[in-house]
């Protein structure tokens, strides 16, 4: 695997956020320019984009738009839903946040133009959140900045400037993660729940709350010997996770009500009669043949090759982290190493700081919060020091026993993100249409953190940087050329 290269650690320059904002804006202008250019000089493979029949509920309406030619691939579904609602069974595979947003603002302009504006603005905001999250987790402003710039020019960039839901998902997912690691759990839950209204994989963000809940409950039960507190933590974690799933479940219930309720038995679709009527799973399986190992066919080899760069990068980032922190990785952060505390400490502070049962005074809580791993100041401190700080006994905190913080991609704080990436990559490879992996994984922070940590350092690491940037640039141009002209891409 790639050897770790080190760099000097410097405080973040004040202009970093300005650079991030400029990178995000320039990347969107580049993509829009390429889309217009390639759409102008080439003829589309599929010329059916301008065909947009009237809504079933309003057959006399006209839905033509100057941007109708730009409505390609899944954009057809999103714009159709914005204009006509959910008319057909297969349209329920596309979640409502983007079409509803376009429809709610339809008094300003037509849905195709609004979708473009919403997505490009959402991507810019997502980039700012990405930098803040990276700075908080990595505790290295240079790596955080490089990772964010790479995200701004990521290989799936075409989808972030098209009528797709990737930009809204990235904004809500990354924003939720930033608020999550900043101890604003309720706000994070709201962001995560909305991300599940943009893309179905948004519900997987509940995994971060589950990770946090496991470690908090473990700490309360085995370190503090507080069964009641552990039970309280589990209940709160379960409720928060349920809130993340709730919008997606509600949308599936709406689909069941629309497609199944009030119909005669011989008119009902097969999934309506199932013990657990899951519309989304049925659509993916029936219309797109999505399922475990279904895509493992010789004729799909080109699509596996198309997805191989992003899957290889994901695999390298996971293996590199696992080899560098084997005990943390294998034990899901419950085991400690000889030099550093477990990554489970990362998400412990909220309950310790806020639980009334612990008798925490406001002053001590502020001191602990300033020292927790949820800020970019430090990522580890031992349990004895935390206990002394909570009790207000700062003088007896054993500073000399604390291990030094380990900033960058190999910090313990990265573990839950790597686990999340591993699950997503496995799903993309074994279950989904594999070529979708490029955009499916494009909002996963560990990919860019890993790439940033190896791509701009001296000597042997330069070649990896060239390869990663060449990959991104190539896919940006290929995506702009193929996707905008209705050719298969990802």
Automatic annotation (TrEMBL):
Gene Ontology biological process terms from the UniProt entry: GPI anchor biosynthetic process
Membrane topology, as annotated, equals: Multi-pass membrane protein
Indicate yes or no for the key word rRNA processing. Answer: no
Pfam families referenced in this protein's UniProt entry, alphabetically: Mannosyl_trans2 (PF04188)
| Residues passing through the membrane, by range | 25-42, 113-131, 143-163, 187-208, 229-249, 304-322, 414-434, 466-487
Enzyme Commission (EC) number: 2.4.1.-
Q: Where in the cell is it found?
A: Endoplasmic reticulum membrane
Keywords for the protein's UniProt record, in alphabetical order: Endoplasmic reticulum, Glycosyltransferase, GPI-anchor biosynthesis, Membrane, Transferase, Transmembrane, Transmembrane helix
GO MF entry, a single one: GPI mannosyltransferase activity
| EC top class, as a word | transferase
Q: Does the keyword Transmembrane apply?
A: yes
Listed pathway(s): Glycolipid biosynthesis; glycosylphosphatidylinositol-anchor biosynthesis
Q: Which GO terms describe its cellular component?
A: endoplasmic reticulum membrane; mannosyltransferase complex
* Entry's family note: Belongs to the PIGV family.
> Which function does this protein serve?
Mannosyltransferase involved in glycosylphosphatidylinositol-anchor biosynthesis.
Please give the name of this protein.
GPI mannosyltransferase 2
**Organism listed in the record:** Abrus precatorius (Indian licorice)
Q: Which gene encodes it?
A: LOC113857553
